[in-house]
Amino acid sequence: MRYAAEPAFVLHARPWRETSLLVEVLSADHGRIGLVARGVQGPKRHVLRAALQPLQAIRFDAVQKGELAQLSAAEAMDAAPLLHGDAALAAFYVNELCLRLAPRHVPQPELHAAYAQVRERLRAGEGLAWTLRRFERDLLEALGVGLAFALEAEGARVDPAARYRLDPEEGPRRLRSERAGERRDTATGRALLALAADALPEAEDLASLRLPLRAVLLHHLGGRGLKSWDMLGELGRLGASKVGVT
Description:
Elements: E1 2-16, E2 20-27, E3 31-37, H1 46-51, E4 57-65, E5 68-76, H2 85-101, H3 109-124, H4 128-142, E6 163-167, E7 171-174, E8 187-188, H5 189-197, H6 203-208, H7 210-220, H8 227-232
Parallel strand pairs: 3-5
Antiparallel strand pairs: 1-2, 1-4, 2-3, 4-5, 6-7, 6-8
Helix pairs in contact: 2-3, 2-4, 3-4
């Protein structure tokens, strides 16, 4: 199979052998694609190397042979966001989610669009906690495992005054008792309704979404966590910084 001027976002790149890179990209029409970029480490190939950095939007030409495609050309379509600190870690998390959950060679137009959106939100410096919760929601929806956050698993509308666990398969389940420690892993009904309506919740409600959504993601990750979770220790500290839109 040949790819010609295929639009994609670079998710990851790592050195391979002495002069090459192994690159993972996310395209709309073909999903996640693995590329071998040969001979990109020389002094005259800096433009190509720059185009193959994570978060970069590119168009590329390649030939698919087996699991990996052989890259023949790539050009940057814009300037990738320049991110630092927590924003850079948030981008690493977004890319790792796509790498782990997006299957190879399966069209992903909705995920591609969600990635474009989160990329611009990170560029604009929008609140990191809300940016990530929205992307987690959109990622699940794009992969066909999204939840109806405004409806309880039994079908009733979510009660804004109640607290809920998120069942990865069936959606919000109301917390019926409050034994020690149970509230920690539950979201407020207000937060779930806000997430469903794409409306920024209050800070306390927003913070309550992190662990329930992480549990859903961990289920779809087959129980194996992410490096970014380990790197951040507690991703919830993002909830204490830039909660609103700046």
